[in-house]
């Protein structure tokens, strides 16, 4: 970084409608939106720099800030933070352009 340069890190939190990971360390489940603050908070994830690679992203739970979306066995889970390299890789995702037929 150049002398005098400032590095900014932005946190963007997005609500995933109709998805509510109610219990951490469990698989995502779909639930109807009951329009409560709890539902909104449970379904909101913050986009953070990737835990395994800063050029990718990780998704931190808004309601459970020490938990991340993790892929395991072709399913998505909400798991607590760990320094284990397997965990760090499993919670790091690459953003790509959306599929357009």
Q: What would the principal axes of the Cα set say about the shape?
A: globular
Biggest sheet: strand arrangement: 1-2-3
| CATH topology label | Trefoil (Acidic Fibroblast Growth Factor, subunit A)
> Residue-averaged pLDDT, rounded?
77
Number of helices: 2
Number of discrete domains: 1
N-end to C-end Cα span:
41 Å
Organism: Nostoc favosum CHAB5714
Domain Alpha-L-arabinofuranosidase B arabinose-binding: 28-94
Pfam family, one: AbfB
Protein name: AbfB domain-containing protein
Please specify the SSE layout and strand pairing.
Blueprint: E1 12-15, H1 37-42, E2 44-49, E3 57-61, E4 67-72, E5 75-80, H2 85-90
Antiparallel strand pairs: 1-2, 2-3, 4-5
Please characterize this protein's 3D structure.
InterPro entries: AbfB_ABD, AbfB_ABD_sf. It comes from Nostoc favosum CHAB5714. This is AbfB domain-containing protein. Pfam families: AbfB (PF05270). There is one protein chain. Helices cover 12% and strands 27% of the residues. It starts with 11 loop residues before the first strand and ends in an 11-residue tail after the last helix. It contains two helices and five strands; from the N terminus they run βαββββα.
